[in-house]
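Page 37, continued from 36.
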């Protein structure tokens, strides 16, 4: 399996999940300016959507979109506990969290990284983030991870997108449980390994 990534982007969640499973994998970084990979591939030929995460499976097929990629990785090693069994209510709860993170939190950070976004647009995004993160804060006041006592791919995803707060200038002060959570997730060996591989930490 090969993961195409951009350092610190949402693909970091998939990178973390791969380390959590212990499965063998390769990585190839996307060069944003050229849409080529460090390994010499034309990324637009790999994934015409042009964004990460993207994984190439051993049979050469391509899978895209963060929530789908994360669940696929988790399902390759069920014993990892990264995703509940398909068909269970717990699995639907995982999908609920992944969808919420993708549509309500991830996308709300977009204006902060768009040089053309107006201050009004950023203020709307900031207000939305405060509301959405309040929901996660409530959950994390009750359990160490989003799904309870065990780390799942939803945690990898939330850790990455909320981790953008510093670069976005978004204040996490009102969310002490989320701050504790970020520190707890950051200490996991798989998270450390993925961040080191992407050059985000030494």
């Amino acid at each position: 399996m090969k993961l195409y990534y951009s350092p610190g982007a949402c693909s970091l969640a998939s990178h973390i999940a791969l380390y959590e499973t212990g499965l063998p994998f390769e990585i190839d970084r996307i060069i944003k300016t050229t849409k080529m990979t460090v390994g010499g591939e034309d990324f637009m030929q790999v994934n015409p959507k042009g964004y990460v995460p993207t994984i190439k499976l051993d049979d050469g097929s391509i899978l895209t979109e963060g929530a789908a990629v994360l669940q696929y990785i988790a399902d390759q090693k069920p014993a990892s506990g990264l995703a509940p069994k398909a068909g269970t209510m717990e699995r639907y709860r995982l999908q609920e969290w992944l969808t919420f993170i993708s549509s309500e939190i991830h996308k709300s950070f977009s204006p902060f990284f768009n040089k053309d976004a107006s201050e009004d647009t950023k203020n709307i995004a900031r207000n939305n983030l405060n509301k959405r993160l309040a929901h996660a804060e409530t959950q994390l006041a009750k359990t160490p991870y989003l799904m309870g006592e065990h780390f799942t791919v939803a945690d990898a995803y939330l850790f990455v997108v909320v981790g953008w707060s510093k670069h976005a200038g978004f204040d996490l002060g009102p969310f002490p449980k989320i701050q504790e959570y970020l520190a707890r997730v950051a200490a996991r060996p798989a998270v450390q390994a993925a961040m080191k591989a992407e050059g985000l930490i030494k």
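The chain has nine helices and five strands. Flag for discussion at group meeting. The CA atoms of residues 137 and 177 lie 6 Å apart.
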